[in-house]
Design brief:
The complex is a heterodimer of chains A (403) and B (381).
Chain A lengths: L1 H14 L12 H33 L31 H34 L4 H15 L3 H13 L8 E3 L3 E4 L2 E4 L1 E2 L3 H31 L6 H18 L6 E2 L2 E3 L2 E3 L2 E3 L1 H27 L3 H9 L4 H31 L3 H4 L4 H12 L2 H30 L5
Helix pairs in contact in A: 3-4, 3-8, 3-12, 4-8, 5-8, 6-7, 8-10, 9-10, 10-13, 12-13
Chain B lengths: L1 H5 L18 H9 L4 H27 L16 H5 L8 H12 L8 H18 L7 H18 L16 H26 L5 H16 L2 H15 L8 H27 L2 H9 L4 H16 L1 H14 L11 H9 L8 H34 L2
Helix pairs in contact in B: 5-15, 6-7, 6-8, 8-9, 8-11, 8-14, 9-11, 10-11, 11-13, 11-14, 12-13, 14-16, 15-16
The chains are: A mainly alpha (403), B mainly alpha (381).
Chain lengths: 403, 381
């Protein structure tokens, strides 16, 4: 009874702030409203001033606004493109789309390679071997301190200084290194290869499912069924089987010197390769530090306890240390991935045609400065947002479930 | 060195240091750290071989066969045929000895170049003074204002009997330092305001504005903000008002750095125990009194190490003005390389530039790490 009365009083007390706003400076609600009006007013006034100036300037210079230019024929030659493109037919819209794809491609490959290299170097810094630890520390300290743009220019001029295709350096006459870029052998792609890739994806899913079952069995019975034979069969056997059933085609196209350049094979242009190299080498030095401090953040007792259980060093690392270290590693790693993606915009300095470079050419040709920059910003905002959403989701999955 | 690289600061446990064998002499140390297992031995031998080979080759290229100066031809141009012949065998440091004034100070009038040199020294002095904890007082703000004003006077001239020099002639290291330092000086108050605004519970509209600003800027690359400054900014201004390129880039830098600093400052505000604000409220302090006297002095102290790291980042990022055609250190390096006799000696120039950047960044990052360790130690009771 008294409980109910107390509740009622509490509810009354909670409802109390719903009184009328007094028009007095001592009323916090009134104060906050005034402050917000003032600040939003100032920001709005500045924006309005800039926008009115801009529209006056645009009118004075007879520049039409709008995205109509996207449908005009671009005429920008693009060296590397993942989509068919012809400068005399295709539009600015398609050119920009190709730019986006180029950005995404270099960022994706860069993220994967930088993670691998960075992890290796980070682990190297923790090595008991003095020489390895010092060498990796030297790598991190030097490469972090040189601006990425300087590194890109350095790699790019270095690649341009390579010999001409006729005197190209070669590795087993399959890989050629010249000032026209890097030539790699290319697999002649057949339906059988597609089938093998599909089989690999199926095998991956199967392995994950089998692992889950093994986990459940272990939880229920304490005995963990062997997982690696099944994983091996699913991940390697299944794709091989699919490939063999469809006739096991295997034909590699080698680059061949014809005239002044190579024909056939896969080409990595000097611009792409310099950009990728710079991004990977630079970002890896940051990732190495993240990995190292993530592993060091795990208390020593965890190692000792795991060793006391009789686990081997690899098992300790995989099953005890890494799952915990990942929680420390993922958030800073996310921002490094975002940095790498944003840094890929420096491609414009060495002439790799990413979105910034193509949008820049577009805005120079059409005079649509505002739209061009809006395109660049919108693309990067979308990419940044998607990466953070994905990494947040992954992080939430890994997060410690506290009781 | 080994201390600095091994101690990681927020880590509660002792770092896994290399095995130390005190008092057992160098052989024991070698056994423990280089040849502890067959795997370690293999790594040591392989790495040692590669490192020695590389070091030897570099020594041969950079010192033994290097060319330090070249004669000047009849037309006043450097005669680089010696260097051309030595290409690939020896480094041609002559490009640096010939061009270092151009690279460091740009096209500033040659006889007046003591002024940018003094500016560089002033900046370094400012960093050193700011780095000492005994000077972390309110008066430091006055020192910053005084130094920045002195930089302006020295660079522009026109007063105190100094010849006026327009911004178009500025270049090299002073530009890099100006962009980074002025960027920090102006971005910092902005960042504090934005961080406070982002945490203002009673002001949802202000909070939204701050979140939009920070997330928009952090979501796009610096180069797009710089493009905006160089291409769009003239459209923003009323007819006839011309803002020069350096100032436009500087504004872009301030806005960009401000967003990142705001996040750093917000981290400091969040790390402060809530009791501090509540105690200030209980004392009857108003919002600004509470913020200026209680919250900020403690929160800002916490964020000095990440602040230094942000500064290192923006110091390196100044090199991006190359893309919009401003003459910073990196651009001057490229300009020096465009001189016909010196074309093709980019490796030497880039190495020289890298040394300058590394010297600044390494000093700052070493300082930031030692500071972080000190602050952590004083935080542990």
């Amino acid at each position: 009874m008294s409980q109910a009365m107390a509740d009622g009083r509490l509810a009354q007390a909670r409802a109390a702030p719903k009184r009328r706003i007094r028009l007095s400076w001592s009323d916090p609600v009134f104060r906050s409203i005034v402050w917000q009006l003032v600040i939003v007013g100032i920001v709005g006034a500045i924006l309005w001033y800039l926008i009115s100036n801009t529209s006056a300037n645009l009118a004075a210079r007879h520049i039409a606004t709008g995205f109509g230019f996207l449908d005009r024929v671009a005429g920008i030659p693009i060296g590397e493109s993942l989509l068919p493109y012809n400068p005399s037919v295709n539009t600015y819209g398609r050119a920009l789309l190709i730019g986006v794809l180029n950005t995404l491609q270099v960022a994706l490959v860069g993220v994967v390679l930088a993670t691998i290299l960075g992890t290796l170097i980070g682990i190297g810094r923790l090595s008991r071997n003095w020489l390895l630890a010092k060498l990796t520390a030297f790598y991190v300290e030097t490469l972090r301190d040189i601006p990425l743009l300087l590194q890109l220019l350095f790699w790019y001029t270095l690649l341009q200084g390579l010999p001409a295709p006729r005197q190209a350096w070669n590795l087993g006459s399959a890989v050629f290194l010249s000032n026209r870029g890097i030539k790699l052998p290319l697999l002649d792609w057949q339906p059988a290869h597609t089938a093998a890739v599909v089989a690999l994806v199926i095998g991956l899913a199967g392995t994950v499912l089998w692992n889950r079952r093994a986990h459940a069995r272990q939880d229920a019975t304490g005995v963990r069924p062997a997982t690696w034979p099944v994983a091996l069969a699913l991940l390697i056997g299944l794709p091989l089987l699919a490939w063999a059933v469809l006739g096991a085609p295997f034909h590699v196209e080698l680059p061949v010197l014809r005239g002044f350049n190579f024909q056939g094979g896969l080409t990595l242009s000097p611009e792409y390769f310099a950009l990728l190299l710079g991004l990977v080498v630079y970002t890896a030095s940051y990732i190495a530090e993240i990995v190292r401090s993530g592993i060091e953040a795990i208390p020593r007792g965890q190692w000792e306890a795991a060793e006391a259980l009789g686990l081997g060093r690899g098992q300790v690392l995989r099953q005890v240390i890494l799952p915990q270290a990942l929680r420390v590693i993922i958030p800073p790693m996310t921002s490094q991935y975002l940095n790498l993606t944003k840094n890929s915009s420096l491609a414009v300095a060495i002439g790799y045609q990413d979105i910034v470079s193509i949008a820049n050419t577009t805005l120079n040709q059409t005079g649509q400065a505002i739209e061009g920059i809006a395109v660049i910003m919108a693309v990067y905002l979308c990419i940044s947002l998607s990466i953070s959403l994905f990494m947040n989701w992954y992080n939430a999955r890994l997060a410690l479930v506290e009781r | 060195m080994s201390d600095a690289s091994l101690a990681v600061d927020h880590i509660p446990t002792a770092p896994r240091a290399q095995e130390k064998a005190p008092g057992l002499g160098p052989w024991a140390w070698l056994r423990a750290n280089l040849f502890s297992s067959w795997w370690s031995t293999a790594v040591t031998l392989a790495l040692g071989y590669v490192i020695l080979r590389v070091l030897f080759a570099l020594f041969e290229w950079g010192v033994v066969n290097a060319i330090w100066s070249v004669p000047y031809g009849a037309n006043g141009m450097a005669d680089t045929s010696v260097c051309q012949n030595a290409k690939g065998i020896g480094a041609c440091w002559a490009v640096l000895t010939d061009k270092y004034r151009l690279i460091l100070f740009g096209r500033y009038p040659y006889d007046e170049q003591w002024r940018p040199a003094l500016v560089v020294l002033l900046f370094i002095g400012l960093y050193v003074v700011s780095a000492m904890r005994r000077f972390w007082r309110k008066e430091l703000v006055l020192v910053w204002i005084a130094v920045l004003a002195a930089v302006g006077v020295l660079m522009w001239g026109g007063v105190l009997g100094l010849t006026p020099v327009s911004e178009d002639a500025w270049g090299g290291l002073p530009i890099t330092l100006i962009l980074a330092t002025f960027g920090l000086a102006f971005a910092f108050p902005l960042a504090v305001l934005v961080a406070l605004g982002r945490r203002a519970k009673r002001l949802p509209a202000v909070r939204l504005l701050c979140v939009l600003y920070v997330e928009l800027i952090r979501g796009v690359p610096l180069i797009s903000v710089l493009f905006m400054a160089s291409v769009m900014f003239p459209l923003f201004m009323p007819e006839g008002l011309n803002v020069n390129k350096l100032l436009r880039a500087q504004i872009a830098f301030i806005l960009f750095t401000g967003a990142y600093l705001a996040e750093v400052v917000r981290g400091g505000l969040q790390a402060l125990p809530k009791g501090q604000a509540e105690a200030a409220d209980a004392l009857g302090l108003g919002y600004w009194q509470k913020t200026m006297l209680i919250i900020l002095p403690q929160a800002l102290r916490l964020v000095i190490p990440p602040l230094v790291n942000t500064f290192i980042g923006s110091f390196k990022d100044t090199s991006l003005v190359l893309i919009i055609g401003l003459f910073d250190l990196l651009t001057m390096g490229k300009v020096a390389l465009s001189d016909p006799p010196w074309q093709g000696f980019s490796t030497e120039v880039y190495i020289g530039l890298a040394v300058v950047y590394i010297a600044f960044c390494f000093a700052m990052s070493t300082y930031s790490r030692s500071l972080e360790r000190d602050l952590n130690r004083s935080g542990q009771r």
